[in-house]
Amino acid sequence: MSGGSVRPRLLIVEDEVHLGRALKLNFELEGFDVDVAPSGKAAVRELVKPVAPAAIVLDVELPDTSGFDLCESLREGGIFAPVIMLTVRASAEDRVRGLEAGADDYLPKPFEFSELLARVRALMRRQQWARGEPGDGAGRTGARGDRSRVLRFGRAVVDFESHLVKVADKEVALTVLELDLVAYFAAHPGRVLARKELLAEVWRLPGAHETRTVDNFVARLRKHFEIDPANPVHFLSHRGAGYRFEPGS
User: Are 20 and 122 in the same domain?
Assistant: First the structure.
């Protein structure tokens, strides 16, 4: 979207033909280049194209896999485009499952296109902000931490402006939510952060019941950053209370 001349590419993974066509038409009218994949296999083929999608709209119910499993495989394969899941299931448990699979947002069917459009644009802005791209408000401070600085701890270097993360001189890819979580921890070093606080400030789920979402994401951060994830020294647990970040010397 830099320079205002490049149309962002959107991948819609949806097996309902009429819905897929309608979404494609409406997003194209809003300035997107859109590809529609009716299955998980078709989505994988679309993702090997030279131009990576700026965002992915992913239906949970697919003919050959579930959106949860597909999202997990995308993240494990190093694809970190923002993902918004669509589903007829509106329960909190399914929403949490989608977030744990690596999705960035979750929208139950039926929905208004205007809301889906707003959420896709919001996710793209968040990713631009995380990367420090022009016009995205990079460098601001607040609940999600100071994005204008470089965080160094242990073997890690996290450049919030460029979204560049290195551990022991090897690049590590983080999702937008993972980077948001690191930023929030870095903004509150040494303080025990309750799961409810993290869900409200990082996941934007105020009032959410405590789930294993935070635990699963902290486990991912430990795999990325700790020498021995089973015995962490940076992302520490406090049973019944939450987690504490210790950057060390």
Answer: yes
The alpha carbons of the chain give a radius of gyration, in whole angstroms, of 18
Residue 106 region, left (φ>0) first, then alpha (ψ -120 to 50), else beta?
A: beta
Is 136 within a domain? no
Domain count for the chain: 2
What secondary structure does DSSP assign to the chain, as a single string?
-GGGTSPPEEEEE---HHHHHHHHHHHHHTT-EEEEESSHHHHHHHHTSSS--SEEEEESB-SSSBHHHHHHHHHHTT----EEEEES---HHHHHHHHHTT-SEEEESS--HHHHHHHHHHHHHHHHHHHT-TTS-TT--STT--TTSEEEETTEEEETTTTEEEETTEE----HHHHHHHHHHHHSTT-EE-HHHHHHHTS--TTPPP-SHHHHHHHHHHHHH-SSTTS-SSEEEETTTEEEE----
Domain limits for position 114: 2-131
Torsion of CA 80, 86, 91, 97, to 10 degrees: -20
pLDDT at 124: 84
In a domain, 28, yes or no: yes
Residue with tokens 């097996």: 15
- Note the pTM of the prediction, 2 decimals: 0.64
Confidence of residue 134 (pLDDT cuts 50, 70, 90): very low
* End position of a domain, from candidates 131, 163, 183: 131
Phi, psi of 159 (to 5 degrees): -100, 105
Rounded to 5 degrees, φ, ψ at 216 are -65, -40
The residues, any chain, with a CB within 8 Å of residue 134's CB and separated by 6 or more, are 2
Which residue did the predictor score with more confidence, 205 or 37? 37
